[in-house]
């Protein structure tokens, strides 16, 4: 009898852990439960959809060394991090770069943003070179300790790493700041919509 109770209890306890490890699908885009950035294994913190009016613009996923449920905990967490974005509609890449720069400026404290300006210019140059991003194309922004922010488009590194840690913090605030690009996306990235 005790053995059955313990077995039943272990099955009940194991179910939430299995649910946490499952891949997530957002608007048809599948995000795996973990990824590798450099030598670091990261876990999926959350994912969501960026909408504008009635249009689905892109999906995004946030990967961290350990789960975090507040913007402050995400930004303060040491180690590698990844934002992975998959386009759902065609968008002018240079315009997207400008929107990201504006989102950083709107959400980062003035001092942090001022230390990020060189990185913002580098990011804008990267997006300007691509002209447009089509549905299914993707990019990642990785924080790699000792290297900086590495931006890759469709799996290929674009430009040189951006060294300033303030840049990555300001970049995350586009989605996690006080005036996020999309409130529901913010909740999704923080794992609140599971």
From TrEMBL:
GO terms for molecular function: intramolecular lyase activity. InterPro entries: Chalcone_isomerase, Chalcone_isomerase_3-sand, Chalcone_isomerase_sf. This is Uncharacterized protein. It comes from Piscinibacter gummiphilus. The lineage of its organism: Bacteria, Pseudomonadati, Pseudomonadota, Betaproteobacteria, Burkholderiales.
């Amino acid at each position: 009898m005790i053995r059955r109770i313990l077995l039943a209890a272990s099955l009940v306890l194991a179910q939430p852990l299995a649910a946490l490890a499952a891949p997530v699908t957002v608007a048809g885009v599948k995000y795996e439960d973990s990824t590798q950035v450099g030598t670091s294994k990261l876990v999926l913190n959350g994912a969501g959809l960026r909408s504008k009016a009635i249009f689905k613009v892109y999906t995004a996923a946030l990967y961290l060394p350990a789960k975090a449920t507040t913007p402050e905990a995400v930004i303060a967490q040491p180690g590698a991090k990844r934002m992975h974005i998959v386009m759902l509609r065609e968008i002018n890449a240079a315009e997207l770069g400008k929107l990201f720069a504006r989102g950083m400026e709107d959400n980062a404290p003035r001092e942090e943003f001022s230390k990020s300006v060189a990185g913002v210019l580098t990011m804008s140059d990267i997006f300007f070179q691509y002209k447009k991003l089509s549905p299914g194309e993707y990019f990642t922004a990785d924080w790699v300790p000792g290297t900086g922010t590495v931006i890759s488009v469709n799996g290929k590194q674009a430009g040189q790493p951006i060294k300033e840690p303030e840049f990555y913090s300001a970049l995350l605030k586009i989605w996690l700041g006080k005036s996020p690009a999309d409130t529901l996306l913010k909740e999704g990235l923080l794992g609140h919509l599971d």
